[in-house]
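[job 4471] stage=fold_predict status=RUNNING
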Amino acid sequence: MRIVEVNNKSLAQTFVQIPDLLFGDWPQYVAVPTHIVQQLFDPAYNQKAASLRIKRWVLFNNKQPIGRIAAFDHPKKAANDNAGALGFFACIQDPDAAALLLSTAENWLKTQGYDWVDGPLNVGENDQYWGVLVEGFERPSFGMNWNPAYYESFFRSAAYEPYYEQLTNYFDLQKGLPERFHKIADWAAAKSNIQAKQLDLKRFHFFAEAVVEVFNSAWVDFENFQPIDVAKVQNDFRRMKPILLEDLVWFAFVNEAPAAFLIMLPDLNEVLERTGPVDSLWGKLKFLYYRRITKFRKLKIVAMGVHQRFQNMGVESVLLQKAYKQLGQAHPSFQEVELAWVGDFNKKMLALHAAAGAVPLRKHITFRKSFQKDQQVKKFEIKTA
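[job 4471] inference complete, writing structure tokens
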């Protein structure tokens, strides 16, 4: 086996293709469009790529690619943690191959002066494609890492310990929301004068400003918080456009002040599992065709936030209720809603999921490893500034 640093276009192309080469025949595997991975490393598309130091490697057995990994500065580094990150791990079922990939990434991070490594992470602007999948292998969804079950043993054998669990829940639209949840939403809407509005792209700037105001308030006290602006929201919605439905994006206002937002998208995997790779012209044409005719069954909540001023008022319950009613009226083909993953440290959001009747769907683990023998990994906790 030999490991090679990615330093030209040919190796960069091989790097993004490796999961397809290794798992393309597996029934659970749905390929991530190549251009999405390529753009993560292109500063023209991903601002993080311009600010992070990134190294990538491909592992070969003779001339056959059998694995890949990347190491980079931590994209969400906590103030008191001298931690780097690794990600984009893919490997055949060979402990020696996995050990070589992980040690190569770790050795580079050590040369950069890091004491810890977290992973698998992403170099993007959000928390998509994070963690090792350990439960729920049969139901992959777009934006979430899928990997074989043997990955977990690779990380644990290399002395990685769980840093936090990423819990994905869902609820069955046919069963509906619990009656108690409807009562809470009705009470909150009447008591606090909460108005729910659908996204109107003709007034995009107005709603984009609402996202910015809510997001920058909801997470401002977290120690790794990075504020967003309207330009970022505009860029995010531009990427969502091929699959965005305006009536699946909801906003709450209290006395005309932005209070919360809820963004839902159809699960793109329902198209991709029918088209296969979409990076050729023929693939793109197939994508457009199947995107138009697919009657989506699965819906994903990709983002949700509540302004600090309006937390503990039931605003999120009002939004979920409005969205549920709209789905029943306008989109009867949807049968289930997958909620955005929640860290095991976020007890408040997990309680909301339980109150809405959501049940477990899958679990990922983001691991951490210390490079110092006298340091022990402590589970991640929400810390406010």
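[job 4471] summary: The chain is about 35% helix and 25% strand.
[job 4471] exit 0
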